[in-house]
Description:
CATH architecture: Roll
CATH class: Mainly Beta
Radius of gyration: 13 Å
Strand content: 25-35%
Number of domains: 1
Helix content: 10-25%
Order of helices and strands: EEHEEEEEH
Distance between the termini: 40 Å
Largest sheet: 7 strands, antiparallel
Number of strands: 7
Structural class: alpha+beta
CATH topology: SH3 type barrels
Mean pLDDT: 91
Number of helices: 2
Low-confidence stretches: none
Amino acid sequence: MGASYPQQGQVYLIKALQSLGDTKKRPAVVVSMDLRNELSRTVLVVPFTSDVGSGETPTRILVPAGEGGLEMDSLAICDNILAIRKPYLEQGPYGQISAGLLRQIQQGIQIAIGIYPI
């Protein structure tokens, strides 16, 4: 039986965050560490977009369909890390992304905040 809190690497559908100008629900991967996920009222997530036309960048990581339960190829938007309250994880988890892809997303976050050289 799994933990009763979101786990790092799990993919959820998150509510639209109008305060951030987002008008639709979208999948996101939990990137905060599990101890924080258990004890905090919020989790850190990186949202996905299915608009892959702009292509991969150091902070936009391509995640293939099927990975983490995603229905289509998507980009993890690592320069848009969000702290959201757990109730905003509306549906899921759909699945778990691989350890290798999670590391790529973590590196994308590090690049976005300037602690990892490109």
